Amino acid sequence: MERKSDTIFGQNLRFLRKRNHLTQQSLADTLELSRHNIGSYEEGRSTPKYEALEVLADFFDITIDVFLREDLSQLSEREFQACTQWSKSKQWERNFRVLQVAVDNKNRENILFVPQKASAGYLNGYGDREFIEESPRFYLPMLGSGSFRAFEIKGDSMLPLKSGTVVIGEYLDNWQDIKDGQTYVIISDTEGIVYKRVYSKFNAEEGELLLKSDNTYYPPISMKLEDIREIWKAKMFMSQDFPDPDMSLERLSAIVQDMQRKMG
Questions:
Q1: N or C: the chain end with fewer CB closer than 10 Å?
Q2: Rg (CA), the chain
Q3: Identity of the highest mean pLDDT range in 100-104, 192-196, 257-261
């Protein structure tokens, strides 16, 4: 018995193939599939195995769920682009790492500490259980539930936080939860470990984030979602450098004026 999902999939396959100006044979040759199978899928006479379905979905930049359930031929161009853009955002999830964690003898998840000198090792050994277990870690009860990690930042791009400050971040498993203008630790193939203010809506159509430094000497950088491996939302920081009091002329003037108002 033919299922509705088979029919919709076949219709979508034909629609996408023609939209991309491909014949059944050229599509089959490109993806190393059988032309007979392509025709059978389009006519609803057979259903591809998951591996073939995944290849077709990736090729047309459509999620499998959309491929099987949504009649693409009935969508407006804007709706169609929204479907493909959502699919692009899922690429980040496919590239995202499976998070390795460590727990103490009370079964509490510990905070892994990543000092500057261990940054390269972290980038290469994030999924290595031995690396995780041998890394320094600690527990902070005030953070509550969640997965947290501590990163020692380098450089002066996020002043007044100085190089050597430790930023504790909470693991973010969906980039769409990013709040524009807030600070995050980003782990990526292109930039390594960076701590920046992040903006997710600056070029969402191309699947990019904008990363800004608080130190305006450093220009903003864009980063593709597909290059990102982890995102940690900054929750607190630890530093051995106590902040200097703001004793600028403007600050001193404000203090004097405030005292005069109180005395008057």
A1: N
A2: 25
A3: 192-196
Which tokens hold the place of 50?
């998951």
Phi-psi region of 226 (alpha: psi -120 to 50; beta: other; left: phi over 0): alpha
Both tokens of residue 237? Answer: 């920081």
Q: What is the per-residue pLDDT across 127-169, written as a single tens digit (0 to 9) for each?
A: 566 677 778 888 888 887 788 999 999 999 998 898 999 999 9
Count of Cβ atoms closer than 10 Å to residue 186 Cβ: 23
- Encode 32-69 in three state secondary structure: CCCHHHHHHHHCCCCCCCHHHHHHHHHHHCCCHHHHHH
Share of the chain above pLDDT 70, in %: 82
pLDDT in tens, 192-228: 999 999 998 766 566 789 999 999 899 999 998 878 8
Taking the C-alpha atoms of residue 173 and residue 28, their distance in angstroms, rounded to an integer, is 36
Q: What is the pLDDT of residue 221?
A: 93
